[in-house]
Design goal:
About 80% of the residues lie in helices and about 0% in strands. It is an all-alpha fold. Helix 4 runs antiparallel to helix 11 and helix 12 runs parallel beside helix 15.
């Protein structure tokens, strides 16, 4: 049997752990939904997460890691592990101090930020706005912990170690589930023969669970630092060549991530103006459901190839660089199209069983999610395109793409609120199609730099054909098979997916040769 390539093994490993993470995330979301229902209280909790998430992503999460990994990879390759850890320490110290400073500022001004017309939830009542501000202040504690953990993830991935960073999100969900089951309820929760204590913190207990999860997220990665001989230097030297290189790449990356995260704030701002109870929650949950296949397909593959692409770029090996990008691109397109179709076909009964919303709430979440699934392929494409440019240290290109994306998103979102407000949350979700436009533009820009060009026409046609065929089969089976709706929906999705595999196999097998 032919041995799998390193990138293939890493992609499959990440896919497995991301699957576990998403399953636990679904369990958490279902438990939260059943406890708080489709309510303004749950809307407040989801809205409160926006700015803390923005701070984390910008300073110590995805923003910094994508700028840090290519530079660290070069230092590791040319100067050795000790030099790489020296650079890591200097950048990490700076990032952590900036995170603490910004968290304090946001905590002080949480109230005005929530109430402002360009803030988080200007359309909510004063009581709900105060609740959002309180939850946001608590959530910033978890953000400060994540500021360390996100940096550790980048350091370990630079060393081509993916196991503990992939395990960390699972433990984060464990902490959150503990918050749902133990810290939030006023009545003890019974799981079979086991009765859990109830601390009665209400919706605040959800945030305490996030803080616990952040601690677990950090703690599980510490053995990896020990294994790779991490040493910490208590210094901040912005004149260092390596630090300046990270900052040079980081500047555009920060602006890019700011624009991307700003879209979530804009989304909730617009949703708060709809006068539709559960609009923010349906957008949050719909996006979360779409993110399950997106993470398994797009994020897993893109995360696995980034260090390798960065190494190829540093050596000027553009032939292998282009070949790796094209293989990944074809795989994500061929997979994401039929997956989106099959999920959309069998979604409603599963949403009804999982979340226990009323008929109107189930319909709202179902249609919002279906619209989000239209953007799945665009999301997976963008994952590959963005990392291709970051590996080349051309961080300004994803920034230009994000500018185009947010401009289109804002235009569509405002148009919906003004003229199609009655359509509610699903119409706002449709604004995410701007990301597909961004992905295609970034592909054009990348192809200007590569010869031959990255192409995926055959994968696109096969994926689209498989989507139509498998989607119709899944819908027909879910509709006409006898039995409970959620059972027939699952059967339809499984059969539809199986029918799609032979069609997309020429592209899917490229995953084995990344």
């Amino acid at each position: 049997m032919k041995k799998l390539s390193f990138l293939t093994r890493v992609s499959l490993l990440l896919g497995i752990f991301f699957t576990l993470d998403k399953l636990l995330g679904f369990v958490r979301a279902i438990l939260v939904a059943r406890q708080f229902h489709l309510s303004y209280e749950l809307d407040a909790f989801n809205a409160a997460n926006n700015l803390p998430s923005l701070l984390f992503v910008l300073i110590s999460g995805g923003g910094l890691s994508m700028a840090l990994i290519p530079v660290l990879s070069e230092h590791l390759t040319t100067n050795g592990r000790r030099a790489a850890w020296d650079l890591f320490s200097r950048v990490g110290n700076l990032a952590f101090l900036v995170t603490i400073f910004m968290a304090v500022i946001l905590a002080i001004f949480a109230g005005p930020i929530v109430r402002s017309q360009i803030g988080i939830a200007p359309g909510f009542s004063p009581d709900r706005q105060r609740l959002i501000a309180q939850l946001m202040q608590l959530d910033l504690i978890a953000t400060c912990i994540f500021s360390l953990s996100g940096l550790v993830t980048a350091g370990l991935q630079t060393n081509q170690h993916f196991f503990l960073p992939a395990l960390a999100p699972i433990l984060y969900n464990v902490g959150q589930i503990f918050g749902v089951l133990v810290l939030s309820p006023t009545i003890p929760y019974t799981l079979g023969p086991l009765t859990l204590p109830a601390f009665g913190f209400g919706v605040q207990g959800l945030v305490y669970g996030e803080i616990l999860g952040a601690l677990l997220h950090l703690g599980i990665q510490i053995p990896g630092l020990i294994r790779y001989q991490f040493h910490w230097i208590p210094a901040i030297d912005i004149r260092s060549t390596g630090v300046l290189e990270v900052l040079r790449v980081l500047g555009p990356r920060l602006l890019t991530m700011f624009l991307i995260q700003l879209m979530f704030i804009i989304r909730n701002n617009l949703a708060s103006r709809l006068g539709q109870m559960g609009a923010i929650t349906s957008l949050t949950y719909g996006w979360m459901i779409m993110q399950v296949p997106e993470t398994l397909i797009g994020t897993a593959i893109a995360t696995a190839i980034l260090p390798t692409l960065a190494e190829m770029a540093s050596r000027g090996n553009w032939a292998d660089f282009r070949a790796t990008v094209e293989k990944a691109f074809r795989v994500v397109i061929a997979l994401s199209l039929p997956v989106a179709a099959v999920m959309a076909a069998g979604l409603r009964p599963l949403v009804a069983v999982a979340f226990h919303f009323d008929t109107a709430g189930t319909a709202l979440l179902t249609w919002t999610t279906r619209v989000y699934l239209l953007t799945l392929t665009g999301y997976t494409m963008q994952e590959i395109m963005a990392r291709s440019f970051y590996a080349r240290r051309e961080a300004n290109v994803p920034l230009y793409g994000a500018m185009i994306r947010i401009g289109l998103y804002l235009a569509i979102g405002v148009y919906v609120v003004v003229f199609f407000r009655r359509l509610g949350a699903p119409a706002i979700a449709a604004a995410e199609l701007s990301l597909t436009v961004e992905s295609l533009i970034m592909l054009l820009w990348l192809n200007r730099r590569l010869d031959p060009k990255v192409t995926a026409w055959s994968a696109s046609f096969r994926g689209l054909g498989a989507a139509i065929f498998s989607g119709l089969a899944a819908y027909a089976l879910a509709l006409y098979l006898p039995g409970p709706g959620f059972v027939t929906a699952l059967v339809g999705m499984v059969v539809g997916g199986a029918l799609a595999l032979p069609v997309i196999w020429p592209d899917l097998r490229l995953l084995l040769r990344l």
